[in-house]
């Protein structure tokens, strides 16, 4: 395996029809640890959008007819090229997201797992035969896909859309978040050395870029990860031509802690599920229900575990938690802190430890048993502030856990695994974890219930969301 090209990690471009493109207008993201400006990124124009959409539609007939095994060979070459740049991607990801090294490395390596998983997949085919006919059900690519990607996991949640699209025979245009455009633009640039022009492209830009892609009549599917509010707008706009959509949206994920847990073991694990990446994970635990018999010692143990999480700059070797990724999210979390203080909620940890000076740093806060109808319980905070709540009746706590318009993830913790699984089956969520915080895998379908989304990604069936079913009836 030999590196045949060199990627420059200090300049960034839109990728249109196999070429790097600049623009008369540029923007830049912000370093969340210093509030300084990062590299310039070109803002895609309406002409750029049309060029990319035309290139994708021109490439689609040939790419969609390329045998699946040939497409896999190119995906494997893409993987091999990516391996040469792991360290550069880790550093770039740390810079644009504020993730400490261990978390950024984990995301960069997860890309390899995504490659390996998709290289194992096959498009299913079903054949039924009777005296009159042979009926074959195949799955054919939906067409041109626009991937609208979020800022919290800009690599995994871009590549996790790119690979099933490519494998199914779709062409794809990636729109990274303007908060974190760099790693996605760079990995799409890397792909140009592997795939035919127009098959995989990337456009960076302003807030107007997303609606332009969603409403475009020659884009056939939107794959979106982001907020519920934006997901609803996408679904409404896509209805204009019944464009296919996959929407992976927010969640207010509950954890139910049963009275038989090993507190010393479980409390730190629950804390990690709440505060990893400062809570900026769609399946992070957002509210923790602890049985009243163990509530006080569990609260104490969770405070102790959380207090040991060092908050610092991403390149500091001892940092466990970095800054909030952007000013918008920082202000939102500060709003939850201020609201909880105004309402007189008791803080078992925080909130006055918030870092001052440059950077969007907020130390973790734990709120001790606030009212069930308080904002910190009802709304997804997406940051390092979490309520602990008491319960004593199992049916009641299940109802409280399900009392949400969302249903993305949940966890149940208990020494009696069968009992915990029984409770888990009653939780209205697409992803339920028993005796673990959320640990997703590309091998399993990731989807949400209620307002947490439509469709799904990954697993053995996620690729089918990039396909239309075609049933051929051959009469004898």
Automatic annotation (TrEMBL):
Keyword set includes Oxidoreductase: yes
Classification via SUPFAM superfamilies: ALDH-like
Pfam families attached to this UniProt entry: Aldedh
Gene Ontology MF annotations: aldehyde dehydrogenase (NAD+) activity
Domain Aldehyde dehydrogenase per the UniProt entry, residue ranges: 25-470
Family: Belongs to the aldehyde dehydrogenase family.
Protein's UniProt name: aldehyde dehydrogenase (NAD(+))
Native species: Venustampulla echinocandica
